[in-house]
Specification:
Elements (H helix, E strand, L loop, with lengths): L16 E4 L2 E4 L1 E2 L2 H7 L7 H8 L6 E7 L11 H9 L1 E7 L5 H10 L3 H4 L15 H7 L7 H7 L3 E6 L8 E2 L5 E2 L9 E4 L10 E6 L5 E6 L8 H6 L2 H16 L6 E6 L62 E3 L5 E3 L12 H28 L4 E7 L4 E2 L6 E2 L5 H4 L4 E3 L6 E8 L3 H8 L4 E2 L9 H4 L9 E5 L24 E6 L3 E7 L9 E7 L10 H4 L3 H13 L4 H7 L2
Helix pairs in contact: 9-10
Keywords: Glycoprotein, Hydrolase, Signal
InterPro entries: Alkaline_phosphatase_core_sf, Sulfatase_CS, Sulfatase_N
Family: Belongs to the sulfatase family.
Length: 573
């Protein structure tokens, strides 16, 4: 089924768009088009100009990105659950790196971390940054954001919420505090800066009438303020207000719009919080449990008291059978040292309390989803996902992310919109597939340097051919000042996870860890898990590595290392 706006595009895009099985498929750009795609000052390509002329019926898009959202929380959210029932729900949806900044850089560009060169949350070395905003900008990723392609195709673009780690206010030469740089690709720019991790007391950006970037201060209401006054300043609710303002301002435009809404929840807090508010995952005051009732508060569709540690698949699993395995040049295997050596500091009581607070924390996001759905028209796609998952005691890891297991890498991917056929999808999708999907839905060109693949055709054809493998990569980095993902309140373990690359299919997960934590040496060892078992409970590499499914995973893993975009795309099929 072709989306209702698709018929208008044929004449305008005949040279770049093929209508295959009733779905728009856009060919990759090459040569001069690549240069235009990387240059935000370049004028629109002829095809994009023709597209803009027929843009009145193209769909709007709203992309809602949650932060550290784990799948067990989805069933607590009334509107998100309704959205999943009414739209396309991808059961095999993953992130390329289960860490905020590398994941967001990959999402914005459609490239893998080894291509974006954004490998960690913090820059580590200011002269040669490997993470954070410094690395994102230094390695040319600003010019590769999908939003630039949407702008060239005639879309009005807006951003609200959390952007990239360390995109913050800077100190000028005279000591004056000045806004961070303006980010191209966005016509409206309401980034909430890092103070929003705490929920209250932070700054956000906006563009004035001249297009100049300005700062807005969001003061933390006093302790004596009412619940309504406090929650009006809560980061998720301010994000909602910015989003609704953007939709209201552009819903009647002739040109279509794209809006990204990046919530801070349910990420753990940093900095500002109210006296007596001890939780590391601060919900809005309206959702919090009374001090004398830990099972109270608002957990959405499920009473807080009914949430239990049994919901956290793999919680407390004995890790003695998870140690990695060496593979010698002669094909023989031998045990490798365990990397999961952290003290299990997360108590059952703390884990359960934090699980419930995370459920309370996402209810404000769910209300935002509800209001956004009511504000948009029928010709609008809404996409809901997360930048990564979160483990909270699974695998005897404490609290955090970064691991290659389902708790950390599997995220929701739910889409509603024009002509979307409701139901679950079995295709494998990754967050690097979002950029080409957005461009595809807009009828815009997808640059050849994009490593992801559009899954737009599966929106109208649930059994359309799609990915069968997902790849993961992660880079070890010793925690540095400014690292926001230690999650110490959960007994965080991010800085014990080694570097790895991994590949996952319906049959199994193969991970190659580098147990040498220097960035120069290597000490490779493997973990292999079968999915005819309940979770990644037992490393079967020694006994299974010569079986056909494992050999297939190994071939793909070897080819993935350092892959060029076209090879990366081919490996998922």
């Amino acid at each position: 089924m072709m989306p209702k706006w698709g018929a208008l595009l044929g004449a305008a895009l005949l040279s770049v768009v093929a209508l295959v099985a009733g779905v728009l498929v856009v060919g990759p750009t090459t040569g001069a088009d690549d240069a235009a795609a990387a240059d935000p000052s370049a004028g629109p390509a002829p095809e994009a100009a023709a597209l803009a002329a027929a843009a009145d019926e193209r769909p709007n898009m709203v992309f809602i990105l949650m932060d550290d959202f784990s799948l067990e929380l989805l069933r607590t959210m009334p509107e998100a659950t309704r959205m999943a029932a009414e739209g396309a729900s991808y059961q095999n949806s993953f992130v390329i790196d289960s860490l905020c900044c590398p994941s967001r850089a990959a999402l914005l560009t459609g490239q893998t971390p080894h291509q974006t060169k954004v490998l960690t949350n913090t820059e580590n070395d200011p002269k040669h940054p490997v993470g954070g905003w410094s690395a994102f900008r230094r390695h040319g990723n600003v010019e590769k954001q999908f939003s630039l392609g949407l702008q060239r195709a005639g879309y009005t673009t807006g951003f609200v919420g959390k952007f990239i780690n360390a995109y913050e206010v800077v100190t000028g030469q005279d000591g004056e505090r000045v806004p961070p740089p303006k980010v191209p690709g966005w016509d409206s720019w309401n980034a909430l800066l890092g103070g929003a991790y705490g929920g209250w007391g932070y700054q956000s950006t906006y563009l004035d009438e001249h297009g100049e970037l300005k700062l807005r201060h969001h003061e933390q209401p006093p302790t004596s303020a009412t619940t309504a006054e406090k929650d009006a300043a809560y980061a998720t609710n301010v994000t909602r207000d910015y989003a609704l303002d953007f939709i209201s301002a552009h819903k009647d435009d002739e040109d279509p719009y794209f809006l990204e809404i990046a919530a801070y929840g349910p990420h753990s807090r940093l900095g500002h919080h109210y006296p007596g508010l001890k939780t590391w995952f601060p919900p809005a005051f309206a959702d919090q449990a009374p001090a004398d009732d830990p099972t109270g508060g608002n957990c959405g569709r499920v009473p807080c008291g009914k949430l239990s540690l049994k919901d956290l698949v793999g919680y407390g699993d004995d890790r003695s059978d998870n140690t990695p395995t060496y593979l010698g040049p002669d094909g023989r295997t031998s045990p490798a040292p365990a990397w999961r050596t952290n003290k299990v500091s997360l108590s059952d009581e703390t884990a359960l309390s934090q699980y419930r607070d995370r459920a309370r924390m996402v209810q404000s996001i769910d209300r935002m989803i509800d209001e956004v759905r009511k504000a948009v028209d029928d010709n609008t796609y809404i996409v809901l996902t997360s930048d990564n998952g979160f483990h909270l005691g699974q695998h005897q890891l404490n609290g955090g992310k970064g691991a290659p297991y389902d708790s950390d890498t599997r995220v929701p991917m739910v889409v509603v919109g024009p002509d979307v056929v409701p139901g679950e999808r079995s295709q494998f999708v990754s967050n690097i597939d979002l950029a080409p999907t957005f461009l595809d839905l807009a009828g815009a060109e997808t640059p050849s340097w994009t490593a992801g693949t559009s899954f737009a055709q599966a929106l109208t054809r649930p059994k359309a051919e799609g990915g069968r493998y997902a790849f993961f990569e992660h880079t070890y980095a010793k925690a540095h000042p400014g690292e926001v993902d230690l999650d110490r309140g959960s007994g965080g373990t991010i800085d014990i996870i080694p570097s790895y690359i991994a590949v996952r299919s319906a049959k199994g997960l193969l991970v190659r860890f580098d147990l040498d934590n220097s960035w120069k040496g290597t000490d490779y060892a493997y973990e292999l898990y079968r999915y005819d078992r309940p979770w990644e409970d037992t490393n079967v590499f020694a006994e299974d590595h010569t079986k056909p499914y494992a050999e297939d995973l190994m071939r793909r893993l070897d080819d993935y290392e350092g892959c060029a975009p076209a090879v990366c795309r081919a490996l998922t099929r």
